[in-house]
Amino acid sequence: MSDKLSHISPHLRLQVSKRARRMALRLDTKERVVYLVVPAKADMTTAKNFAKEYKHWIQEKIDALPEPVPFHDGVVIPLFGRNVEIRVNYDQTLKRTSIELKPRILLVNTNKKDQKEVSDRIMRFLKKEATRVIRALAVEKAARLGKAIANVSVRDTRSRWGSCAEDGNLSFSWRLIFAPWEALDYVVAHEVAHLVHMNHGKAFWNLCARISTDYETGRDWMRDHGHELMSFGH
Ligand SMILES: [Zn+2]
């Protein structure tokens, strides 16, 4: 089935879903593909015809995605709102890879020749940095509200930049590291404010504003540019 889908579009993938009630198309900005989501019992011919109708839509969505930004030597990436150049020094005599974040340079000293391996190391380093900064920010904001956070986890989430569970566990995407500071700060403030108000009412937004640097700028940026955060790395 899936190779027949590729005749409709090379960017199309099939996802049979037990939960889906109707057919739908879902853009995956990280994998740069569109999923044809089909309920388990749906008729595949109907599903294929449905996808065919949206052939141009699929291409438009894929074309509109920002170019991927790999973690290679010389590439400039935004980190916490500041442009930082990745500099990779290869030295076969080194025992291990070391990475250091300087004000404008991400310095990588490595004995690895394989670009993918180096890129993986950079990604792990950035995830750690993101976790450290987001965690500290969440704890600080929560303390201002007299709240304690059960746990802050930072991972590679797909659909949401942040979430707050009923039990007080907060979760964030590590990719917020590539967002401007106001945007990252806003996403953290948003979830922390949910520790007090589990809704999006007026009181919630007032609180969110109180514990953010500039929540309107941050919110607008996430709405207009959030999808761009998926283009970093591989
Ligand atoms: Zn919310």
Automatic annotation (TrEMBL):
Pfam families in the record: YgjP-like
Organism from which the protein derives: Micavibrio aeruginosavorus
Domain YgjP-like metallopeptidase per the UniProt entry, residue ranges: 22-225
Protein's recorded name: M48 family metallopeptidase
